[in-house]
Write a structure and sequence with these properties.
Layout: H1 2-24, H2 46-53, H3 56-60, E1 73-76, E2 79-82, H4 99-108, E3 110-111, E4 114-115, H5 122-125, H6 130-142, H7 165-173, H8 187-197, H9 203-206, E5 229-231, E6 234-236, H10 251-260, H11 270-278, H12 285-297, H13 328-336, H14 343-351, H15 353-356, H16 382-390, E7 392-394, E8 404-406, H17 415-425, H18 438-448
Helix pairs in contact: 2-6, 4-6, 8-12, 10-12, 14-17, 16-18, 17-18
């Protein structure tokens, strides 16, 4: 009996020691993945370009706040996470950080031994090259204006407030090493892959999440990489596979969408609109084409020709597109405008046909097509309902300066009417998606009022 108690006591001590080591022993951070000279300096403009490619501005700038001074609330299943001040202010920003500390934050999600919440996409930034990380560090430290801004502390409920637990999460979530593994492709495909997997952190939204809320697929070799996800209750479209929203787009269509948030098929909204506004529009044509070519060929599809100039300025002749075979019956129904047509069709004629037309094809680069639209066909109709109720907008970009706005109909249509309209759109022109109920509309309307 005494022997058993001694053994139990030793085990308890070992467990306590292991727990203390787990909490207090410093994390071994990742070394540089390139051997650069100590006096290496990035070429002019590279650091700012990396900042744009990494979309730092969108998360680290609060609405109405100073650029990169933090304070934007980022919703997560655990609660609101407040973005940090990454200007070189020595009191409230990163002005005292060394290059090694900055790299640890980017690659390992650790700052001075304190774990960052994975709202910071170090799951993806870990694939970035040392030269890009150093260029970004140089830009933030030397070219960004210091801003004194004490950001609100992130205070999550137990147990998520115990940051040492993220160490265990990292062991499970950060699978494989942090080395970028180029595909078997040409230089343009590999450049696109590098941007998508690393700085662009596309998987943070476009890959599903595991039971641990980690990205289930961060690079090309992962089965679920870019197969669709969910963000703030919105379905995020798949970029590969049979349900890919870009399957029928050309390389030129995709590059134009990245650069301007619009093309002949769709417009960007939600978080994607922010990515276009703060990040993608600033990429050069070579990189936009590289991303588009990689996304369109990553599973062995033939490489399509890329445009010499992405989203070339107009004027362009863009005549209305006629209904195709799948949409012909709906187009005839709406054109006839019979007094006894279903309520959904009448609501569409009254509120939507002026922009999206009876064909459901919309107007290229202005009003998106509704036939085959990923948001229209989403498993969760909430994003479609939210758009009908509250409207949406497309940001102004250098290549397409016009700021496009769709009005909302929350004051005009009842929950029953919105449900009927949404159900019609989800079943018209050959679309095949489930009906929307008034209760679903009421839930979205209530959420938007709080």
């Amino acid at each position: 009996m005494k022997t058993a108690l001694r053994i139990l006591g030793v085990l308890v001590v070992l467990v306590v020691l292991a727990a203390l080591a787990f909490i207090y022993v410093p994390v071994k951070t990742t070394p540089p993945n390139e051997d650069l000279a100590s006096d290496w300096k990035p070429e002019l403009g590279r650091g700012e370009y990396v900042m744009r490619a990494g979309d730092c501005m969108a998360c680290h700038t609060a609405e109405g706040g100073s650029p990169l001074a933090g304070g934007r609330g980022i919703a997560s299943p655990m609660g609101t996470i407040w973005s940090s001040n990454i200007t070189p202010d020595k009191e409230t920003g990163i002005g005292n950080w060394t290059l090694d500390q900055f790299r640890a934050a980017m690659v390992d999600g650790v700052v001075n031994g304190k774990h960052l919440y994975p709202a910071m996409p170090y799951e993806n930034y870990r694939f970035m090259s040392e030269s890009d990380i150093r260029a970004l560090y140089s830009y933030l430290m030397n070219d960004v204006k210091p801003v004194k801004n004490e950001v609100q502390a992130t205070e999550l409920d137990f147990p998520f407030n115990l940051r040492f637990g993220i160490r265990a999460w990292n062991w499970l979530a950060l699978t494989g090493d942090s080395a970028f593994k180029p595909m078997d492709g040409n230089e343009q495909q590999i450049r696109g892959q590098y941007l998508v997997e690393g700085a662009g952190h596309c998987a943070a939204c476009h890959s599903p999440r595991s039971a641990l809320m980690a990205q289930d697929g961060t690079r090309l070799g992962d089965a679920n990489f870019l197969t669709g996800g969910e963000l703030d209750g919105w379905n995020v479209s798949a970029l590969r596979g049979s349900n890919s929203s870009i399957e029928n787009w050309s390389t030129a269509d995709l590059a134009a969408y990245l650069a301007t948030g619009r093309n002949v098929h769709s417009i960007a909204n939600g978080e994607m609109a922010l990515a276009v506004e703060h990040s993608l529009q600033y990429l050069n044509d070579q990189d936009l084409n590289a991303i588009a070519i990689f996304l369109k060929s990553m599973d062995g599809q033939p490489i399509q020709d890329a445009p010499k100039q992405v989203a070339a300025p107009g004027p362009h002749a863009m005549p209305p597109r006629p209904a195709n075979e799948a949409g012909l019956a709906t187009a005839k129904l709406l054109t006839a405008a019979s007094p006894d047509m279903p309520l959904g069709a009448r609501l569409y004629l009254d509120n939507c046909a002026g922009c999206h037309f009876v064909t459901g094809k919309g107007a290229s680069e202005i009003f998106p097509e509704l036939q085959g639209n990923a948001m229209v066909l989403g498993k969760d109709p909430s994003p479609l309902v939210s758009t009908i109720l509250n409207g949406t907008s497309v940001p102004s970009t250098s290549r397409r300066p016009m700021h496009l706005v769709m009005q909302g109909y929350s004051d005009r249509l009842s929950d029953e009417e919105v449900a009927t309209l949404a159900s019609f759109v989800r079943s018209a022109w050959g679309n095949k998606a489930g009906e929307v109920t008034p209760d679903q509309v009421a839930k979205v309307r209530s959420a938007n009022q709080h």
